[in-house]
Amino acid sequence: MTLRGFYITIFLAFTLLSCNKKNNFKDFKFSDEQPVITCKSLNNELLNEALYSFENDLNRHYSRLSGQNLTLAYSRFINGAVNNRIKLTDIASKHSVLVFQALKDEDLWDAENPRSHLNYNSPFFNCLIQNINEKQLQATLKALLETNSMSPELFGAPLASNYRAAVTDKYIALYVAFDLFYAKFFDEDLSLVNLKSDPYENVDFNKIPKK
Question: Could you give the number of structural domains in the chain?
Fold first, then answer.
């Protein structure tokens, strides 16, 4: 075998292993829900699962206060998250933890960034920004990235003022799920989540939120 052939073989083997690693998550609970996220060359099935699992956790956790009103649940979560007043292990379900373990194999993260473990320079984040419909929030995100000052704290204020956008614009919801929820799992003791019982409950995602 030539040296060139050897490198090609190594590359193909690595690619095959990477693909198998990214596709070994099978425990989809929300595959029957309408896909709302489409990002080129990314694992859209897993991204949609992550978003629906996150929203299900919000509705379950805040149901006593919001009555499974997703708009109010987003309001309470975003305000709590940007002000560091929430305990993620109380919100996360077993299923979201399992989804997170699968997400760790995706090219979404930046372990060296002290502001957030979400990679703001990744194809995933670029897809998120390009598809946001809420133009004011989109412009704010772009400005923060261009000045290399993007962080959950700086984006938190405009996001908290326009939390309703997360219900109608699922790319905003995707940002909330990944930067304020899943990215913070890296710093959490996930053993504190009750993994023996799964508080998964069906939520009607087609239900029109109450005003």
Answer: 1
